[in-house]
Amino acid sequence: MESFLQIAPHSLAIVLSRVGAGEAVGAARVSESDELPRHHTGYEIFADFKAENTQQHVWNQRITEAVSETFFLGWIDEHVLLIQGKEDHLEVLREGWMRRSLNPPRGFTIKYLGKA
């Protein structure tokens, strides 16, 4: 059974969940008034996703290159980030997520990835 639903070619849907008050972010616990960023647009969340993965993955050049070569496609329903890029870069991101080495934007967790 196919686990992906394709909406746009060469795109990936990153389904996010906002980290709530008192939930763990990495090893630290934060409250709603602490360091959770206040994103205003989907593009800002995308920019933070790129920053988290290019700064954190200097040891994994495949993820760094894949993330840097993706583009913002859209933001759906307050929790779905749509990105677009070459299929081989999207595959690197899928593999990185399966290996738990793909970082979410600050203040979020990645619930799952799917073809968009």
From TrEMBL:
Give the record's GO CC terms. Answer: cytoplasm; nucleus
Q: Which GO terms describe its molecular function?
A: RNA polymerase II transcription regulatory region sequence-specific DNA binding
Q: Name the GO terms of the biological process aspect.
A: regulation of transcription by RNA polymerase II
> Which InterPro entries does the entry link to?
STOX1/2
> Which PANTHER family does the entry mention?
STORKHEAD-BOX PROTEIN 2, WINGED HELIX DOMAIN-CONTAINING PROTEIN
What is this protein's name?
Si:ch211-51f19.1
